[in-house]
Amino acid sequence: MVNVSIARRYARALLDVATEAGRADAVSEQLSTFASMLADNRDLSNVLLNPAFTSAQRTGVVEGLIQASGAMDPVLANTLRLLVDRNRLAYLPDIARLYRDMADAQAGRVRGHVTSAVPLTLDAVQKISESLRALTQRNVVLEPRVDPSVLGGVAAQVGSTLYDGTLRTQLEQMRRELKQH
User: What is the number of other CB atoms lying within 10 angstroms of the CB of residue 117?
Assistant: First the structure.
């Protein structure tokens, strides 16, 4: 089990330096991309996390990835080098998650997802996000999801609050009301 307090310290330090440089959101995006790449590529994660590979080999792989990315923020590149030096790359997924959460909180953003029966247009997601901003008094970043069982309408979850405007829920409510009469 990964110690979250260690990941939190790295995420906080990275956020402090990135914020000071005015690049917190860019670093968040690049960090999430790097963590996803590590999670999605089994061979890559094996090389970077397996103690059978030397620190020099892991450093070489990370340096190659930094160079291949082209425009990786220097703050993030240095953090990745530090994680390799201290043998803490296993913490990267937690660092990325905690960093994003801290950056969102600092920027007054909250993340959520909107579920619909069919894919929503970018404009529709933006309108829903604006409506939720009025309700929550925070900038809402939505991830669209498709679930055919919704039938119609949308359900949006922001934090632990669910705003359910699905046809299924409305039909269920009508059924309960009719049952009472």
Answer: 17
- What the block records as the tokens of 80 is 């990745």
From first CA to last CA, the distance across the chain in angstroms is 54
User: What does the CA dihedral 15, 18, 23, 25 come to, rounded to 10 degrees?
Assistant: -20
Cα 8–Cα 9–Cα 10 angle in degrees, nearest 5? 90
Residue 154 DSSP class: E
| Distance from C-alpha of 35 to C-alpha of 2, rounded to nearest angstrom | 15
Over the stretch 113-159, which tens digit does the pLDDT of each residue have?
Answer: 999 989 999 999 999 999 999 988 888 989 999 998 888 889 999 88
Separation of alpha carbons 174 and 178, rounded Å: 6
What is the C-alpha separation between 44 and 68, in angstroms, rounded? 14
Q: Report CA-CA distances (Å) from 143 to 12, 24, 68, 105, 116.
A: 25, 20, 28, 17, 11
**What percent helix, strand, coil does the chain show, rounded to 5?**
65, 15, 20
Q: pLDDT (tens digit, 9 = 90+) per residue, 34-48?
A: 999 888 999 988 888
Count CA atoms within 13 Å of residue 148 on its CB side: 0
